[in-house]
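Input (structure):
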């Protein structure tokens, strides 16, 4: 059944971010049983600067809105107009995101079914390539006195609605309405049939744009729920809103559990360099503090920049940092807190005793006055929270994940925070060669973090989600696992 109450709406804003930018104009035409029952057409004072580009696009100048009411003053009337009706807009996610964000500033919960006229146009007129509002105006000969003004654009939406109501076969029109309204507010470029292919089980998903460019890689225990969450929370994030505008296709790689999903996500991001995984895709240069000992027997560290670490060196890793500056700040901090010598730590240079010695914040290690054992004990205590965790097991362990939803099972052999063996047919995983010696394992920081969190949750705290089983047990030797 075609909805009886619809609110055709358009907003103009100070920018593209629902979280930081504000609404400067709202146009609403409320229709009930095919009749216009209310209209709203007002400029709003955003109480902030309007970007010159927005001024040029809309023709709205700061002078025009200087004495306009604020959203706070108009919120109740706008809220009332939108209540109990379908939210109709072109690229509805944008307008919906901004209004939801505006209402949230006053703790006014706002939700509404969204009917995107851009998606509706694509469903009804697939033979046309372009479905922007300007394209619809030109194609159907709609009137629009001032393009990119809220009320005028809302009038175009009403004209489009009336046109399709009179010209499109009712059954097809109803099917198109239901297809959009029964689903979450999907990106306008995405075919809603893709939702039927999304599994409610663990895996990795990839978002592509219309040119097959990889936009984003994510992982989830329930892929379907996680993917849909991208399309219902965009008003909270500039990135999500921008991403949703470009998504045209979704591909999924199913896994048996969370470890498989986490590892594959990390590997895919590094290999395929998706546009929106900015932090994970960066090449990692590690800043490490490596434990050494002076000729006199005092423990110290060397701050080094490395691209990879051999697994057998992990016991000597006292810390990892984002930059050398962060590393030096940390060394100065622990020197003062634990009465360590900044000179021995490399945070101070010069001959003779360190500056802290004269202030009684160093107990004389730089002058060989403090016994090595006492100094070294405090040294280890100072780094205890920041250093690499020791591998929990004496031998490699096998992790077996099984999903009761799909029946899928996966095996991983782990040792020294490295993936020693996994599914050999998976091109997205590049584990260490199980025939290599231990000291040839290549340590990866992201893999370390993944395995450490996974072990803490599933092995020690046993926090297993419903429908999944995990077993972790030692294996005899690495070479035996290769057989």
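Output (sequence):
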């Amino acid at each position: 059944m075609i909805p009886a109450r619809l609110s055709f709406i358009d907003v103009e804003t100070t920018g593209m971010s629902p979280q930081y930018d504000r609404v400067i104009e709202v146009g609403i035409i409320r229709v009930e049983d095919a009749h216009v029952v209310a209209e709203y057409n007002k400029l709003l004072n955003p109480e902030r600067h309007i970007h010159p580009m927005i001024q040029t696009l809309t023709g709205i100048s700061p002078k025009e809105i200087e004495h306009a009411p604020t959203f706070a003053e108009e919120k109740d009337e706008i809220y009332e107009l939108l209540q109990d009706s379908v939210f109709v807009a072109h690229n509805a996610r944008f307008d919906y995101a901004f209004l939801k964000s505006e209402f949230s500033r006053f703790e006014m919960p706002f939700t509404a079914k969204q009917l995107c006229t851009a998606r509706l146009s694509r469903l009804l007129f697939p033979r046309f390539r372009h479905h922007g509002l300007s394209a619809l105006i030109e194609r159907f000969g709609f009137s629009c006195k001032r393009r990119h003004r809220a009320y005028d654009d809302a009038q175009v939406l009403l004209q489009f609605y009336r046109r399709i109501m009179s010209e499109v076969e009712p059954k097809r029109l109803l099917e198109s309405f239901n297809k959009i309204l029964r689903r979450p507010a999907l990106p306008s470029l995405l075919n809603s049939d893709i939702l039927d292919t999304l599994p409610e089980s663990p895996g990795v998903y990839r978002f592509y744009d219309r040119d097959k460019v990889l936009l984003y890689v994510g992982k989830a225990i329930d892929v379907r729920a996680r993917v849909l969450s991208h399309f219902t929370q965009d008003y909270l994030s500039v990135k999500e809103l921008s991403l949703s505008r470009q998504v045209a296709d979704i591909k999924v790689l199913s896994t048996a559990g969370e470890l498989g999903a986490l590892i594959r996500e990390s590997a895919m991001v590094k290999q395929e360099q998706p546009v929106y995984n900015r932090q994970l895709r960066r090449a990692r240069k590690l800043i490490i503090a490596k434990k050494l000992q002076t000729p006199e027997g005092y423990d110290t560290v060397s701050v080094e920049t490395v691209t990879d670490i051999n697994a057998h060196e992990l016991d000597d890793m006292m810390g990892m940092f984002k930059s050398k500056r962060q590393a030096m700040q940390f060394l100065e901090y622990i020197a003062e807190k634990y009465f360590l010598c900044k000179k021995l730590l490399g945070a101070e240079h010069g001959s003779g005793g360190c500056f802290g010695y004269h202030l009684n914040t160093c107990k004389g290690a730089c002058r060989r006055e403090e016994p090595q054992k006492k100094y070294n004990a405090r040294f280890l205590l100072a780094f205890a929270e920041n250093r690499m965790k020791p591998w929990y097991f004496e031998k490699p362990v096998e992790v077996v994940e099984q999903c009761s939803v799909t029946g899928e099972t996966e095996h991983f052999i782990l040792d020294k925070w490295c993936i020693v063996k996994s599914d050999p047919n998976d091109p997205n995983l590049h584990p260490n060669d199980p025939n290599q010696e231990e000291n040839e394992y290549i340590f990866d920081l992201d893999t370390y973090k993944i395995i450490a969190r996974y072990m803490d949750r599933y092995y020690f705290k046993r926090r297993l989600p419903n429908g999944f089983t995990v077993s972790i047990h030692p294996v005899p030797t690495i070479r035996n696992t290769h057989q």
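Notes: DSSP finds 18 helices and 17 strands in the chain. Residues 150-167 form the longest helix (18 residues).
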